[in-house]
Amino acid sequence: MTDLLKEALDRIDGYTHPDGANQRANRLHKANQTSLNAGADTWRVYQDAIENADDYDDILQAALAVQDAQRLANAARMIGDDLRAQVQAQRSNPRVHEPSETKPALDFLDAELRDLMRTVRAQEPALHGIHNATDALRGGGNSQDAWQTVVEQVSRYEEIRAAQRKITITISGSDQRETFVKLINRSGLLRAAFDHELDFQQRRIMWSPRSAERGAADFVAWIKHPPRLEFERTGNAVFPDDPIAYLRWISDGDKAWVPDVADLVRVDELAETMLSHYPIKQRTAAREQYYDARNLKPATVETVSIV
């Protein structure tokens, strides 16, 4: 477990990591061995008393000690079995945490992501016109340092996204794993995913209304003409082919986010509503909530003039 993930998980009220439960069980099981070992010791004492003691009370006390040790051993075996069963049950049937419980952890990761994007943006003055490591090397000290700083953010970004997936899919959505994998992949990485994710791009281009609807022509034209796709990031991939370029792109304007589960579901539902065949008022209301209410600007239809 990385330090970032641990810090995020510590913000989830009532969460116990399976590894922590296993460590607890191991610690208690070790203490349990004392009770199991006591039986062998008391039996040796009893056998010695039977063979050598002249006082009946000594033999009786040794026998009673054996009986007590057997009770302790039975209890110890029961404790050991139940501790193992408890760990197995927690691993097999993890508790599903409510969105309100995981929100502090995801908010923490979102703040970390925003800090990452600020760090990348701060390097841009030294990287003007530079698009690869060779150019940075030729540019000299400031350019090299700035390029290296951005390179270091690649692994940090991967760590943030891994923690996001762990919390959103495994801890909040373990009972709907496939659904939450899809939600993160299409709506959980970019704030304006409806404009910039391949999944939505392809569906927008192929979408068509069922019938002509008054006032819908402009909306349909907007749906079917998304902006040019900057990067083709597909499926579970954290990055497209060029991680450095992608980090610089998302950092310009804080395009990336780590939504809490409630926001993730809500925003994805708004996107699905825009691609539905609901009445135009409902679809345009969804667009306003998706963009305007979140301080985003919907991409405008690009027209091509032929002279």
Question: Could you walk me through the main structural features you see in this protein, from its secondary elements to its overall organization?
Answer:
The protein is elongated, with a radius of gyration of 31 Å. 68% of the residues lie in helices and 0% in strands.
Mean pLDDT: 87
Low-confidence stretches: none
Q: Tally the helices: what do you get?
A: 13
Helix fraction, binned, reads: 55-70%
Strand runs, count: 0
Main β-sheet, in a few words?
none
- The dominant shape is elongated
Short structural summary:
With 307 residues, the protein is mainly alpha-helical. It has helices at 3-9, 18-52, 56-92, 99-122, 133-139, 141-172, 177-187, 193-196, 198-206, 217-224, 243-251, 261-274, 280-290.
Fold blueprint:
Elements: H1 3-9, H2 18-52, H3 56-92, H4 99-122, H5 133-139, H6 141-172, H7 177-187, H8 193-196, H9 198-206, H10 217-224, H11 243-251, H12 261-274, H13 280-290
Quickly list its features:
307 residues, 68% helix, 13 helices
